[in-house]
Structures are given as structure tokens and as C-alpha cells.
Write a structure and sequence with these properties.
Oligomer: single chain
Function: GTPase that plays an essential role in the late steps of ribosome biogenesis.
Family: Belongs to the TRAFAC class TrmE-Era-EngA-EngB-Septin-like GTPase superfamily. EngA (Der) GTPase family.
Organism: Gluconobacter kanchanaburiensis NBRC 103587
Subunit structure: Associates with the 50S ribosomal subunit.
Strand content: 15-25%
CATH architecture: 3-Layer(aba) Sandwich
Number of domains: 1
Strand order of the largest sheet: 2-3-4-1-5-6-7
Largest sheet: 7 strands, mixed
CATH superfamily: P-loop containing nucleotide triphosphate hydrolases
CATH class: Alpha Beta
Bound molecules: guanosine-5'-diphosphate, magnesium ion
Shape: globular
Protein name: GTPase Der
Order of helices and strands: EHEEEHEHEHEH
Helix content: 25-40%
Number of helices: 5
Length: 163
């Protein structure tokens, strides 16, 4: 039974990009999982010698409740419930949005270990947002760029340390 790492956050923050980045080097099989959220994808990643099961929460468009918050929650509820660690992503370029804050406050109440990620922080981009992200009450944000591969090695180390 591999430890389960769930990637969560509002749409468009780069969750799937991060998922692909983390599973990529292992060419993990990514398959649709049956269940409430048919778009949810899972794969395996090797992080600092530790094998983990990674879940990319998606399928917000398919989930039933018709508000963004409802969809985020429906998509993430079952995944977060089985998470050994949640990677909660924000977009450092757009800053903290009301949806991020809302989702973060829901996530805090789930009592799962959370690692806060400020994505799209290539170069110096997003330094302010990363600082702002402290206000989400989910600990110290880790700034990285899933698309450019910056900060990924640090992230892998952080994940491995927490499992
Ligand atoms: P998701 O909806 O959270 O799964 O987000 P996606 O992974 O589909 O990414 C949404 C958009 O953000 C895409 O256009 C990505 O190319 C872009 N993106 C993802 N990661 C980064 C990053 O690190 N930097 C920048 N600048 N763009 C990114
Ligand atoms: Mg996605």
C-alpha cells in the first residue's frame, strides 16, 4: 500500500502540470478512475527513492454541484479523505483568489497533512503571492514552477520527508 499524495486546488493553478512533472520520469500509467469524479487521474511517482501514489484531482466540470466551490469540493472530497499528504496548489502569478481562500479553509477542516505550493513561480515571479499565501493558514508555501521544473527537487524532498 503506497502512501497517497493528492494534488488539490482550484482550476488552472497547474495541478495536472505538476502531476505530469512528478510522474513523468517514471512513465507511470495514468488512467481514469471510476467513481464520482471520472476525470480523476492517478499514477505512481518515485520521490527520493520513495514510491508514492499520486492523485490529480480534476473533473470539476463533471461534478454535480453547480458552483465552483461545490465542484472543487465534490472533486476533492474522496481523494482528500484518503490522502496521506495533500499538495494544495495556488497560482503565484494571479495571487490568492477568493476560491483559493475558500478551498483552503475547507481543506484545513479535513485534518489531513497539507503542503502548500505556490506554482508558476519561475524566476522571481510570484514572490509576493508566496508570502501572501501564509495567510491561508496552511503553513509555509513552497514556491516552484511545475512547467519549468524549478523547485521540483525540493518538493520531492519535502514530500518524502513528510511521508
Ligand atoms: P489545473 O487545472 O490546475 O490542472 O492546471 P493545468 O496543469 O491544466 O495548467 C493550467 C495552465 O497553467 C496551463 O496553461 C499550464 O501550461 C499553465 N501552467 C502550469 N504550470 C505552470 C508554471 O509553472 N508556470 C506557468 N507560467 N504556467 C504554468
Ligand atoms: Mg487539471
Amino acid at each position: 500500500n503506497l502512501p497517497v499524495v493528492v494534488i488539490a486546488g482550484r482550476p488552472n493553478v497547474g495541478k495536472s502540470t505538476l502531476f505530469n512533472r512528478l510522474v513523468g520520469r517514471r512513465q507511470a500509467i495514468v488512467s481514469d478512475m471510476p467513481g464520482v469524479t471520472r476525470d480523476r487521474k492517478e499514477g505512481e511517482a518515485l520521490l527520493r527513492g520513495r514510491r508514492v501514489k499520486l492523485i490529480d484531482t480534476a473533473g470539476l466540470e463533471e461534478a454535480a454541484p453547480d458552483t465552483l466551490y461545490g465542484r472543487m469540493r465534490a472533486s476533492s472530497e474522496s481523494a482528500v479523505a484518503m490522502a496521506d499528504l495533500v499538495l494544495f496548489c495556488i497560482d503565484a502569478r494571479s495571487g490568492i483568489t477568493p476560491a483559493d481562500a475558500h478551498f483552503a479553509s475547507w481543506l484545513r477542516r479535513q485534518n489531513r497533512p497539507v503542503l502548500l505550493i505556490a506554482n508558476k513561480a519561475e524566476g522571481q515571479a510570484g514572490t509576493n503571492a508566496a508570502l501572501e499565501a501564509y495567510s491561508l493558514g496552511l503553513g509555509t508555501p513552497l514556491a516552484l514552477s511545475a512547467e519549468h521544473g524549478e523547485g521540483i527537487a525540493d518538493l520531492m524532498g519535502e514530500i518524502a520527508e513528510r511521508l
